[in-house]
Amino acid sequence: MTTRVAIVGGGKIGEALLSGLVRSGHPTRDLVVAEKNAARGAELTEEYGVRVTAIADAVEGATIVVLAVKPADVDGVLEIISGVEDTGEVERLTVSLVAGLSTRHYEDALPAGAPVVRVMPNTPMLVGEAMSAVTGGRYATDEHVSTVATLLESVGKVIVIAEKQMDAVTAVSGSGPAYAFLMAEAMIDAGVGLGLTRATATLLAAQTIRGAGVLLTDSGLSPVDLRAAVTSPAGTTAEAIRELEAHGFRHAFYEALRANAGASAALRAAAPSAENDG
Ligand SMILES: NC(=O)C1=CN([C@@H]2O[C@H](COP(=O)(O)OP(=O)(O)OC[C@H]3O[C@@H](n4cnc5c(N)ncnc54)[C@H](O)[C@@H]3O)[C@@H](O)[C@H]2O)C=CC1
Ligand SMILES: O=C(O)[C@@H]1CCC=N1
Predict the structure, then answer these.
(1) Cβ proximity of 31 and 92 under 8 Å
(2) CA of 175 to the centre of ligand 2 (A)
(3) How far does the centroid of ligand 1 lie from the alpha carbon of residue 13, in Å?
(4) 61 CB under 6 A from ligand 1?
(5) What distances in angstroms separate CA 129 from CA 26, 39, 78, 250, 260, one per listed residue?
(6) CB of 173 closer than 6 A to ligand 2?
(7) Could you give the CA distance from residue 272 to residue 216 in angstroms, rounded to a whole number?
(8) Torsion angles phi and psi, residue 56, rounded to 5
(9) Do the Cβ atoms of 65 and 40 come closer than 8 Å?
(10) What region holds the Pyrroline-5-carboxylate reductase catalytic N-terminal domain (predicted)?
């Protein structure tokens, strides 16, 4: 069966999914975007050759409706989607990329029994290198979950998790690219401070982070072993790591990720049907 995907919200993560799917060969005739900002919609059509239209039109005939709007915009979108009759020909699967809000939140707003799958992706989806975690709601079957997992495998790696782990996943991988970019910024500024040009420092930092990432995913070695391999006795790396630890690097990550998970919980608490959220 053809998977016809409607992406509601053509912002950063909506575009990342669109780009990843187009790059992986998903036919653009089976992709449609609903984007309320007309200029942004035109950009997406120009870049990817995809049709951009109103939510109700996008959803009609879609087998998978992906919500890629900010949490505050979710309920308005759900109201519109709920008003679009399922053709009966194919069951519509709602997939949310939104942080914080639980599957129960969507189930409460959609017609009774509507299947919902929640995903926490990240922006490297733009280049087919996403890390996505997937979880099914009450009415989602294993087949629904695996349909979404298969779609996302075309744009990166996928794991299936329990919904209670979603806030932790958001803290580690959903927001994770931002920590890597912050580290890159800090390394570049420090390199410039040591006399490198910004262009050279940027190249050095970016390729180093990329190479370290590939070693981490492909070498089968732990980060501890990989770090040890760089750290010569009484050498330069040991000095740098001593300074990073003295400045609370590890503790900063614990606290940062706890704050991130707390922010996901706060999004749920602020949602109108919070009392139903799991
Ligand atoms: N940016 C990221 O790295 C990640 C974001 N997410 C989740 O994805 C969601 C979207 O985030 P971003 O893409 O960063 O936000 P964004 O602000 O870049 O994109 C949201 C888009 O939705 C559009 N929009 C809002 N209401 C609409 C409506 N009623 N109809 C059509 N379009 C509408 C906006 O014009 C905007 O282009 C958030 O809920 C966030 O939690 C999840 C994982 C990673
Ligand atoms: O910052 C946010 O809320 C979203 C969720 C994960 C990444 N970006």
Answers:
(1) no
(2) 5
(3) 6
(4) no
(5) 16, 27, 29, 26, 22
(6) no
(7) 41
(8) -60, -40
(9) no
(10) 4-86
Which pLDDT value is given to residue 209? 98
Which of 18, 65, 70, 119 for a ligand 1 pocket mutation test, highest count of atoms within 8 Å of Cβ?
Answer: 70
The ligand with the least distance to the CA atom of 70 is 1
Using DSSP, state whether 154 is helix, strand or coil. coil
Judging by DSSP bridges, how do beta strands 130-136 and 156-160 pair with one another?
parallel
Report whether 253 contacts 178 (CB < 8 A). Answer: no
Numbered ranges of CATH 3.40.50.720 in the chain: 5-164
Instruction: Give the CATH fold of the 5-164 domain.
Output: Rossmann fold (3.40.50)
The minimum-distance atom of ligand 2 relative to the CA of 174 is 6
Low-confidence ranges of the chain (pLDDT < 70): 1, 87-90, 272-278
pLDDT of residue 274: 47
Residues of each domain in the chain carrying CATH 1.10.3730.10? 176-247
CATH homologous superfamily of 176-247: ProC C-terminal domain-like (1.10.3730.10)
Alpha-carbon distance 18 to 48, whole Å?
8
Instruction: Record the pTM.
Output: 0.95
Query: What is the model's pLDDT at position 86?
Result: 73
pLDDT digits (tens, 9 = 90+) for 188-225: 999 999 999 999 999 999 999 999 999 999 999 999 99
Query: For residue 73, which atom of ligand 1 is closest to its CA?
Result: 26
